[in-house]
Specification:
Elements: E1 6-12, H1 17-30, E2 38-43, H2 48-60, E3 64-68, H3 71-80, E4 109-113, E5 117-119, H4 124-128, E6 136-138, H5 142-149, E7 167-171, H6 172-177, H7 180-190, H8 197-205, E8 211-213, H9 230-234, H10 242-250, E9 254-256, H11 276-283, H12 297-300, H13 305-319, H14 324-344
Parallel strand pairs: 1-2, 1-4, 2-3, 6-8
Antiparallel strand pairs: 4-7, 5-9, 6-7
Helix pairs in contact: 1-2, 7-8, 13-14
Length: 364
C-alpha cells in the first residue's frame, strides 16, 4: 500500500540556522529521491541573511523552503499554561507537540529532525513505513526505559518506554483522529514540572499503543563515547537489541550531536565525537564553510562546584581510551554521590520526568 508523502521539517531560531542548514544539506545530498518540492522550517526568528542561505541550499537541490510561524500557537499555549516554558530561551522546540495546528492539511507524514544533526544516509525506510494506528514514531532511551521498568518513576501515560524527541515521524492524520491536542492539554493542566518541555509532554501524553519505535540508527546519540566503550554502553541495560546497536554504530542514518559537557558538538573546538568528520564534510559544502569553530564548551560553560566538576570528570572517562569497566565505575560513583546529594537536599531526581507528588495516572 502506498504510504503518504513524507515531508521534512525543522524548527529553529536564528542561533541554530547554520546547523539546521548543514543538516538539511546532508539530508538532500543523501536523499535524492525526496519527493516534495518543499521543506518546512518553523521560523522563530531566523535572520534574513540566514534565510537567504537556507533558501540557497534548498534551491541547489531543486527544492524551496516554506516558512511557518509557530509563535501564535506556542504563545497561546504558554499563556494558558505558564508551566510550558521555553527551552534554552526559545519556544522553537516547544512547537513539536502542536505541529497539527500549523501544518497544511495536505501534510500527513512529517519527519521532524533537530537542527544539531547530520543525515548520513537514506530515510526511504521511513517513507515506506506502515505507521498503523501510531501517531508518532521515534527512538527510545535505554536509560530512561530502564528507570521506568524498575519503577523509579512513572509516566502519566503509563508507558514503559521513553521516546526521545530529537527525531520524530508524525502521522498527522492519526494524530488528529486521536485528538492528541487534547491529550497535551490534559497533561499541561496537571503536570507543572516540564524540564525538557516537548519531550516530557509527549511521553506523558501519548500512550504507548499510539507510539511506534524507530531503529536507533535514526537518532544515533553515542558518537562521543570512545569506540572501546560505545557498544557496551548501548547494551548496558539490555533494552536495545544487539543487532540494532551494531547497525547504529556502523551505519547511522541520523547522527545527533548532543549538547552539554558530552563534548559531542563538532562546531565547537575540542569535540570528542568520532563522527565529527561527517559534520565537517557537509559544512564544507555549505554557505558557512568558512565560519570558524566556536570555543570549547567547557571554556564557555566551565563546570562549577564539586558536583558539576565530579559530573564532568565522570563523563570524560567515557570519551577517553579507558576500559569500559572503569568508565562504568566512574559513572556509578557519580550517580551514587548524586543520589545522596539530592536526598539530603530533598530532591527527587526522577520526579520531574513523570507523575508528580499527590497525583494519579491519566487513563489513555
Amino acid at each position: 500500500m502506498k504510504q503518504p508523502t513524507l515531508y521534512l521539517c525543522y524548527s529553529i531560531n536564528d542561533f541554530y540556522s547554520r546547523e539546521a542548514g548543514i543538516s538539511m544539506l546532508s539530508f538532500l545530498e543523501n536523499n535524492p529521491g525526496y519527493e516534495p518540492e518543499e521543506v518546512f522550517f518553523v521560523d522563530y526568528g531566523i535572520h534574513p541573511v540566514n534565510r537567504a542561505k537556507l533558501d540557497g541550499i534548498a534551491a541547489r537541490y531543486g527544492k524551496r523552503i516554506t516558512y511557518l510561524n509557530g509563535r501564535p500557537v506556542t504563545s497561546e499555549v504558554k499563556r494558558q499554561f505558564p508551566n510550558y516554558r521555553a527551552w534554552k530561551g526559545s519556544m522553537a522546540a516547544c512547537i513539536k507537540p502542536f505541529f497539527d495546528k500549523i501544518m497544511p492539511d495536505y501534510v500527513q507524514r512529517l519527519l521532524y529532525i533537530d537542527a544539531d544533526t547530520v543525515v548520513a544516509g537514506s530515510i526511504e525506510e521511513l517513507q515506506q513505513m506502515d505507521m498503523g494506528d501510531a501517531v508518532v514514531a521515534g527512538t527510545i532511551s535505554d536509560m530512561m526505559g530502564h528507570a521506568l521498568q524498575n519503577h523509579w518513576y512513572e509516566l502519566y501515560s503509563g508507558n514503559t518506554q521513553y521516546m526521545g524527541s530529537g527525531v520524530l515521524l508524525f502521522d498527522l492524520g492519526n494524530w488528529r483522529r486521536e485528538d492528541c491536542y487534547q491529550k497535551m492539554v490534559g497533561i499541561l493542566q496537571r503536570k507543572k514540572n516540564l524540564r525538557l518541555p516537548d519531550q516530557m509532554l509527549l511521553n506523558n501524553a501519548i500512550p504507548q499503543r499510539l507510539m511506534k519505535v524507530l531503529p536507533t540508527k535514526y537518532n544515533y546519540t553515542m558518537s562521543n563515547y570512545h569506540p572501546w566503550q560505545e557498544y557496551r554502553w548501548m547494551r548496558r541495560y539490555g533494552i536495545l537489541p544487539e543487532e540494532e546497536c551494531r547497525e547504529a554504530i556502523d551505519h547511522p542514518i541520523i547522527i545527533h550531536y548532543l549538547t552539554g559537557w558530552a563534548l559531542a558538538r563538532p562546531w565547537h573546538e575540542g569535540c570528542r565525537s568520532h563522527r565529527k568528520e561527517e559534520y565537517y564534510r557537509y559544512k564544507a559544502l555549505s554557505p558557512w564553510k568558512d565560519d570558524p569553530l566556536a570555543p570549547p564548551i567547557e571554556k564557555l560553560y566551565p563546570p562549577k562546584g564539586f558536583n558539576q566538576k565530579f559530573l564532568f570528570w565522570s563523563l570524560m572517562q567515557t570519551m577517553k581510551p579507558r576500559p569500559y569497566f572503569f568508565a562504568v565505575w566512574a559513572q556509578d560513583l557519580y550517580m551514587g554521590y548524586n543520589r545522596i546529594y539530592s536526598r539530603r537536599r530533598g530532591i527527587d531526581i526522577h520526579s520531574d520526568e513523570g507523575i508528580e507528588a499527590c497525583d494519579n495516572r491519566i487513563e489513555s
